[in-house]
Amino acid sequence: MALLVLLRHGQSVMNRDNRYTGWQECDLSEKGEDESRLAGRLMEEAGLRFGVVHTSLQLRAIRTANLSLQAMDQLWLPVRRHWRLNERHYGALEGLDKKQTAAEHGAEQVRWWRRSWDHRPPPVSLDDPRHPRHDRRYAQLPADVLPVGECLKDVVTRMLPYWHDRIVPDLRACDPVLVAAHGNSLRGLVKHLKGISDHDIPHLEIPTGVPWVFDLGPALEVRSDHLLGDQEDIARRADEVARQAEVPSPT
């Protein structure tokens, strides 16, 4: 048996400002910092003792992991970071205000880009500063490996090799594993773990800063799973995430 905990980062500054974030770098908001510390306290109260932590290369996930582990007095744990756990790359939508985007492209089109399983947003070009090759974290990777605009299907495709090659061996060899990442990379992982259909997965909302505990069997099948914390508060946070995905019509 193995224990896996998934933790979406706390609210970021760009979440707060209702912008498409993706691979854009930003820190946690004050609320996001509080959510991260609360996540740590909840995991501490649940008696969780991790053997290793996995995060993306993005600041908001890294700081969420650090603040949570500090609250648990487990900041000393070994951490593995990888770009394959990064958030979905939103292409030409990256960094844009959602209302502005709806005004430029139409609300219905933007809804399709955001919620379709396999429909990509417009890509960024190689010379666009939002292309990952301009970020030193990804400078050693071939440009054709880096995303320029992903659908959820793309995120699952690039995330699963990391699951199989890095996280699974740790689950088999270590104590419980914590993965601190993003809404879409974690959505893809949950799809794989629970066998959620392509049709249903876009509707799965993962609230910010809420630990999701999975009890896995010998074949890493899900035996049970639950979210830690006050259930009314979790429902409120999930609703906030759902409303972030709504695209306001231009006025």
How would you describe what is shown here?
The chain has 251 residues and is α/β, with parallel strands linked by helices. It has one domain (2-216, 223-244): Phosphoglycerate mutase-like (Rossmann fold). It is 39% helix and 12% strand. It contains 8 helices and 6 strands. The chain has a 6-stranded mixed sheet, sandwiched between helices.
Q: Can you give me a brief rundown of this structure?
A:
The protein has 251 residues and is an alpha/beta fold.
Main sheet: strands, sense, barrel: 6 strands, mixed
Which term fits the overall shape? globular
Order of helices and strands: EHHEHEHHHEHEEH
| Lateral strand order in the biggest sheet | 3-2-4-1-5-6
How are the elements arranged and paired?
Blueprint: E1 2-8, H1 13-16, H2 30-45, E2 52-55, H3 59-71, E3 79-81, H4 98-105, H5 107-115, H6 152-173, E4 177-181, H7 183-194, E5 211-216, E6 222-227, H8 231-244
Parallel strand pairs: 1-4, 2-3, 2-4
Antiparallel strand pairs: 1-5, 5-6
Helix pairs in contact: 2-3, 4-5, 6-7
Keywords, separated by commas or semicolons:
251 residues, alpha/beta, Rossmann fold, 6-stranded mixed sheet, 6 strands
